[in-house]
Q: What sequence folds into this?
């Protein structure tokens, strides 16, 4: 081949423009172009607005109804205010707390009743709820029906529960007095009006509800027990009680912690049943009742009622904070 011919071909190949070089040969499909260059916005303006409303509105409501009111109650605890006009708020320092601890004849009985409430809930309905959970965990026949029946009081409003038990305790036509023959003149038993009986009557209604709550908590904990532990215990010759005491119950330690905290909170925030029964009078005083009577009652002592609320808040935090610390430490170790 001639040298001039080869050099001219080489010159022709190298002299092609970049546009021509980018054109693929005939019959070769064009490569797909990138749909979008650079960063693509995954959310439209409408999506961002919707997400903002969905997250923002609940956050604003939570802050306004929980945090703002809690901080306002703490601030008002050191003042006197009748609730009419902000200019009537007067700073009194610790006077509300001094009066609460020394001059209020209802405060210490209310604290005592809250303690009694906790002791009764932890000693009677909690073990009974554990017993129900153990029985239902055996997969007996109609277990779902039993679960629904025992858990139904938890679903029903406490106010409705109070009205139902009012009918049970009615001196004239109540179920209990009718069964024991105490609905006749001269033999009446006033379960709600008698200061020696009404607190225990309310606690029976509260225990009826609390047992179903504890049953569900313990049933969830029992579902998490490794079946191999029970099998190994039975192979070692342990009976059902020994297996539960030495194998099953120790594995329920996290559930027991939750049960303890829930029971303490239930005892501290008890309000609905007592208020429906007799509005916390005649031997059923509770801290929550004192708060309500002072803040929205006829006295309208908002500062004094806020001081009681702060005391209740401190008692609650003493229980909740150690539980949260232990939970966070456990999650870090895991």
A:
């Amino acid at each position: 081949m001639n040298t001039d011919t080869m050099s001219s071909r080489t010159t022709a190949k190298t002299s092609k423009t970049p546009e021509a070089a980018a054109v693929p040969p005939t019959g070769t499909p064009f490569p797909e172009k990138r749909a979008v260059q650079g960063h693509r916005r995954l959310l439209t303006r409408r999506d961002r607005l919707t997400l903002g409303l969905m997250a923002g509105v609940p956050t604003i409501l939570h802050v306004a109804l929980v945090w703002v009111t809690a901080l306002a109650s703490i601030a008002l605890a050191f003042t006197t205010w009748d609730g009419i006009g902000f200019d009537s708020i007067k700073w009194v320092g610790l006077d509300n707390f001094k009066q609460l601890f020394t001059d209020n004849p209802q405060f210490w009985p209310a604290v005592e009743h809250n303690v009694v409430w906790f002791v009764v809930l932890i000693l009677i309905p909690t073990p009974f709820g554990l017993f129900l959970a153990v029985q239902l965990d055996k997969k007996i026949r109609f277990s779902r029906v039993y679960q629904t029946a025992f858990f139904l009081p938890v679903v029903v409003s406490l106010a409705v529960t109070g009205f139902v038990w009012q009918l049970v305790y009615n001196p004239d036509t109540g179920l209990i007095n009718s069964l024991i023959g105490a609905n006749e003149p001269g033999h009446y038993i006033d379960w709600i009006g008698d200061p020696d009986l009404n607190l225990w009557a309310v606690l029976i209604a509260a225990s009826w509800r609390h047992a179903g709550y504890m049953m569900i908590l313990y049933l969830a904990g029992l579902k998490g027990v490794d079946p191999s532990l029970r099998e190994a215990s039975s192979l070692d010759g342990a009976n059902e009680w020994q297996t539960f005491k030495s194998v099953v119950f120790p594995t329920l330690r996290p559930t027991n912690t939750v049960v303890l905290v829930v029971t303490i909170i239930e005892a501290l925030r008890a309000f609905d049943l007592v208020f429906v029964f007799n509005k916390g009078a005649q031997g059923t005083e509770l801290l929550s009742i004192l708060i309500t009577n002072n803040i929205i009652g006829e006295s309208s002592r908002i500062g004094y009622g806020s001081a009681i609320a702060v005391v209740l808040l401190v008692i609650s935090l003493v229980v909740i904070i150690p539980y949260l610390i232990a939970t966070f430490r456990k999650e870090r170790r895991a």
